[in-house]
TrEMBL record:
Keywords assigned by UniProt, alphabetized: Membrane, Transmembrane, Transmembrane helix
Species whose genome carries this gene: Paralvinella palmiformis
Lineage of origin: Eukaryota, Metazoa, Spiralia, Lophotrochozoa, Annelida
TM ranges: 42-64, 73-96, 108-129
Protein name: Uncharacterized protein
Keyword Transmembrane helix assigned: yes
Amino acid sequence: MAEFKDASLWMRLAFLMVTIGLLLDLHGLSSGVNDVYGDVRGTMVIAYLCFLVAFVLALCLIFLDELKGNKAALICLIVFALIAGLAVIIGVALWGGNSRYYSNIGTYPAMLLCMAGLLDILGGIFAILEIAGVKG
């Protein structure tokens, strides 16, 4: 079983960004995206599932010796992190586009979800730097 300090800088940063993004996504979804259209709900479900997969992959890449340096798992982390970030941002854009019909759409959940999407995209970029072999 590996330790957090044994991982490279880029993997540690990717793990932290994906973890914080997942927490912000959970808080943003629980505080305001309940009564929205089906397209927004669909993109948020896709984003949430991709967040979970990216989080589990980041956990496994850092703490399991069997996956340390596994290129296929790193590529999957990159793909799921970027899809999650883009899906959240698309969902927030769709949600904001429908705000002229409803006055109960809050800015706080939208800000949390945008930050979650940006952090997950940043986590994917850090994973790209890890797979490219950039020294940190």
